[in-house]
Design a protein that fits this description.
By secondary structure, the chain is α/β, with parallel strands linked by helices. It has a single domain, classed as Aldolase class I (TIM Barrel, Alpha-Beta Barrel), CATH 3.20.20. The chain contains eleven helices and eight strands. Helix 7 crosses helix 8.
Length: 282
Amino acid sequence: MTLVRTESLVRAAVERSSAVAAFNVITMEHAEAIVTGAEAAGCGVILQISQNAVRFHGAQLRPIAAAALALAELSNVEVALHLDHVTDIELLRQAADAGFSSVMFDAGDLSYQANVAATRAAAQEGHSAGLWVEAELGYVGGKAGAPAGAHVAGVRTDPVEAGDYVIACGVDALAVAVGSSHAMTTRSAQLDHDLIRLIAAKVALPLVLHGSSGVPDTELRAATSAGMRKINIGTALNIAFTDAVREHLASDDQVTDPRTYLGGARKAMSDIVTTLIQAITA
């Protein structure tokens, strides 16, 4: 097994009526933990690097992408690279050369017509470079500028509008707002599974669930049964990472070697990855 295209993993998930897990990479330890956790679960996985993560690394995509690419190539399970939540078209243009096979272009905070126009242009740009393109319609909770509450009026994705949207934009997958929120630190989100089924009936493309860290295992499995095919997870890894580091530093105020606590943080993230992949694919 080695580096594969995102669309290959998603297509396989569609064929088995399941979902593929996609985890956000911030540091090298994140990437290592995700691959190790996926290997323990025996399942393929998607490494996602967001535009925010690129900004954290000095606005340089290639260094962190190169690390993720090397880990993917050495893995004994299939691993794909995905560039997530991109709003900068110049960053999108770097994706293919940096080893990514897919990109999520995020115009979800724009009006419907502005979203369509921006996403159509991004999809054309991405497809010309051989990228699989994911878009978003609706307001996933927890994003800057999104209305408060994941179930308030006007927030969730409209099924009929979604069907028209994917045709107008020419994208390959659709992230939808169905009750999840980004950056949740408790697993208490309640999804609208009837809405997921309605959207899946109108959209002949894979559906993507963002903000899945706050979604309980039972809700994740139900979402997959209703039609979700890509499950995005980020905050859960950051919680595990931070808790492990905090616990180690609290127990030893003389420690100076970061390897002593980053190793534990990496292991904590890896365990979470394995557990979540098993829950999603059960």
